[in-house]
Amino acid sequence: MNRLIIPFLFIAQLTFAQSKQRIQLTHDEAQKRVSVTVDGKPFTAYIYPGPSVLKKAVLYPILSAGGNPITRGWPMDPRPGERVDHPHHVGMWFNYGDVNGHDFWNNSTAIGPEHKGPFGTIVHTGVKSMKSGKDQGELVVTADWLDKDGKPMLQETTTYLFRAGANDRTIDHITTLKALDKDVVFKDNKEGMIAIRVARELEHPSNKPEVFTDAQGVATKVPALNNAGVTGKYVSSEGIEGDAVWGTRGKWVNLTGTINAEPVSVVLFDHPQNVGYPTYWHARGYGLFAANPLAPSVMSSGKAPAMNYTLPAGQSVTFRHRVLITSGNTTNQTVSEQAMKFGR
Question: Which pTM does this prediction carry?
Answer without folding.
Answer: 0.91
